[in-house]
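Let us work through a complete example step by step.
Step 1: write down the sequence.
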Amino acid sequence: MTPADADFHQLWKTKYSKLIFRKSDTIPEELHQMVQEGFLTLRKHDCFFQDLVRIKGKDFVTPVSRILIGNPGCTYKYLNTRLFTVPWPTEGYDIKYCSPRIHDACKALIRLNDYLHIEAVKALQGQNLFETKEIKDSTVIDREQNFATSFMEKESVSKDQSSCCVSEDDYISLKNRTSYNLTLLNYMDPLQMLYLKQEPYFGMGNMAVSWHHDENLVERSTVAVYSYSCEGSAVEESNEQKLKGRDPAVWHVGLKVAWDIETPGLAIPLHQGDFYLMLDDLNVTHQHCVLAGFSPRFSSTHRVADCSRGTLEYIFGQCELALQNLQTDSESMALSLKSLETAVVKQVEEIHNEVEFEWLRQFWFQGKRYLKCTDWWLKPMAKLEEFWRKMEVMTSLVLSEVGKEEQIEEQRNETLSCFLLVLTERQKLRKEWTASALSESLIHMICINRLLPYTSLYFIKASARCLE
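Step 2: predict the structure and record it as tokens.
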């Protein structure tokens, strides 16, 4: 259904109430101007790239071009591809951008991020009042009417005062669900696409992004999406025709109940500067898609990414844990292992795999794309690669030690059995990465993104070894 249908708003209220839509005139004009100039700057500097993703064991190039911007050291993984943030300006971090204009673009996006965070807090407050208004007494209502204000002023509210304004649990919950740590920017020009998939269930037309749930988000966190379509004469002409149903010239966001094609879906038109919020568990209970119009479009999709295993701080901590089992002789400087206990060896080798396949290969495989904006990631990735080299030595030391005669046979067999399982997985993954590097999809991605994979020598050697 579209707004032209009689039952559209009733359906929205009953089946899609956790989708909040705001028109462009609700956002300050200055912020619109900053963000839209930022989009165009990033496009002008060729900062948007199509991704190589894996779906059901097959490699595909995304029709949409993307760039991830957010907190320094954060990553976001979707469809087996890990993206690394171009860091937005952050106090305490020395971030050198390739151009002052790119700095300004990233600064505009963190401004938008802050604005959408406040709007998400207000929306959650309003949703809470709406859903339970019949059972709340006046004291609770008064407290919640001040909820968004007290939330933003929480730093100045002491714990003994919070009981009359906002509880500590409520504050932590709202903060966790609305503090966006990154935004995934999207760009697509539909008229440049040779083929777009048709929406299969409701006849909604061309899809830029198929039905999906957003991945790797903090539970019940809000997703905020700001849309900027470069509207022109094609849209105006289509509007004059007064088409029935979804206007194919206008971009829309589509929503449906997850795994349900009986309940009608929604198609909501998106114009320059509109934004919408997917509150609470909507991303789990429902699916959404993006329906292409005729004009080029940018969007900024702000997320609370689950970074429990996706930050530099995390992976450096894992490396330090693994390297605790490596020691250096003070005289000969020879390297040896402190322990050959099965659990210790297993933990180290699993971290070895995580560093190689979840971080280093993911980063280098994507080529020189990040250097279009900043060289910020090069130093931490070089440090991570140094850790990886030490773990390669540790793998060799395990093989050397378990082969010695003084090893107790039962302990040796247990260690070898566990060790070989992890090594078999490593060999399998290296072969898969080598195959991906030679795939037609990658060659296509290299051509369209005009870059070559910036592959480390160590991983060329590692890939070669696994095929011997």
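Step 3: interpret the result. Residues 100-132 form the longest helix (33 residues).
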